Amino acid sequence: MTSSYNTSSLQATLLLLICLVSGATWISLPRFIRWRTRAAMLNAIPTIGPSGFLSGYIGMYSFFTNPREILQEGYNKYPNSVYKIALIDRWAIIANGCMMIEDIKKASDTQLDMREATAESLQIEYTLSKDLHVDPYHVAVVRTQITRNIASRFSEVRDEIVAAFADHIPVQEDWVKIPAYTTSFQIVGRTVNRFFVGLPLCRDPDWLDLNTHFAVNVFLSATIINIFPGFLKPIAGRLLTRMPASMKRAAKHLAPMIEERLVMEDQHQSKDWPGKPNDLISWLLDEATEDKQRTVSELVTRVLAIEVAAIHTTAFCNALYELAAHPDIVGHLREEVQAAVKESGWTKESISKMRKLDSFLKETLRLSGSGGFVNTRKVMEDFTFSDGTTVPAGMIIAVSAYMAHHDERLYENPYTFDALRFYKMRSGEGESIKHQTAAPALDYIPFGIGRNACPGRFLAVYEIKGLIAHILMVYDVKFEEEGVKPPFEWYGQNMNPSRTGVVLFRKRQEP
């Protein structure tokens, strides 16, 4: 009896184990197949640099220290296709050529998602707020209200430009050395905050210090967090983020303003009430329809997020460097600015008439306005390019903007700064409204392209043109060593203007 019982028990146990193993095999088999298929897709995409399990880390280090050379190698080898490079914890798929860019432009968000890619690259959950990714209603404010109000608020922006320059670069007869990078951030911060939150907050030292440093810290923290593998990112994020402290500090300035607006809405039972300010807080409240979107903490988060995008622009610093490096263009630009202002005053309309200045800014952005990656997308489902290359879901796709903007097949003498390059193009028959700075194209992608192009680009262009126009009318600028522009600083895929460069200013001397 005992022997029979033991045999039956053993048989039952073995049968159960077989069933469990078989079940586990059938459960894991689809996952294994998907993994093998994904690996095959990735293996079919050529690699720049080592691609082995351990040697891939060498490739990652090489990209971080020599990004321009690696991106150029990939662009030269695969001019109308894709390749991959090793990042810290993943592969990045780089698409080259107008055909590939067109494929990305046409793809739906269910195929290639910009929001997901941005959330990962900026580590939004830790550096800003997860709610920004889950419910990005503030993007509609940037796309509509901010753009629509450029004309009506431009006189205030102009007033702040004059005041900011007077404070940071007083007009003097003798040449004065100005640290270009830090000063450009300070002036941009004041100018954009006059548009966003108005007086007196736009000149509050604590508010400006918070926004300027917060913007820098978001990008720096994201860069550091991305160094860690996925399972360590939550720990790194909690240790590195300054969001809680920044929120508390920002709320001291914004909470009274927000609470007052909410009280006025309740009193008038309407979002429209007498004396309502026409600023970013009001635009956010107009867009927010749910109670959870209309809390102080939510609105403070949205304001900070928009500030990050608006202030952390290196375009003005780059334009300042190019202006100092090319004194031959100053006379042409001054003549145009004077004529436009004489006809239309300091208005959005007059800025629109400054076609040579627009060409100068667009050429600046072509040469220096983009680093290694733009048009970044996360692959949400296996995506096949028109050349037949398939990229598996979960990957990040990007375009190498710097290489595209220096392609001699797209631009004549691409490494030469031609301030009037695009002005000449617009002078052709039927071309007058084309080739503008804010207009993305397959061969010009500093703002991305298609429906996901940067929604704040119009404000940025008018603001920077207004800043440069003011310099032209008030100052002379130059480098200590004539024509020698400080070199760009590359960190991985990020390219920035020199943070130590100096530009000399003095009161404009009439010829």
Automatic annotation (TrEMBL):
Record bears the keyword Mitochondrion: no
Which keywords accompany this UniProt record?
Heme, Iron, Membrane, Metal-binding, Oxidoreductase, Transmembrane, Transmembrane helix
Q: InterPro entries attached here?
A: Cyt_P450 (IPR001128), Cyt_P450_E_grp-IV (IPR002403), Cyt_P450_sf (IPR036396)
Q: Where, in this chain's numbering, is heme bound?
A: C454
Q: Has the keyword Heme been applied to this entry? A: yes
The superkingdom listed in its UniProt entry is Eukaryota
Q: Which cofactor does it need?
A: heme
In its UniProt record, a GO molecular function of this protein is: monooxygenase activity
Transmembrane parts of this sequence: 12-29, 41-64
Similarity section: Belongs to the cytochrome P450 family.
This chain belongs to the protein called Cytochrome P450
Q: Which organism is it from?
A: Gymnopus androsaceus JB14
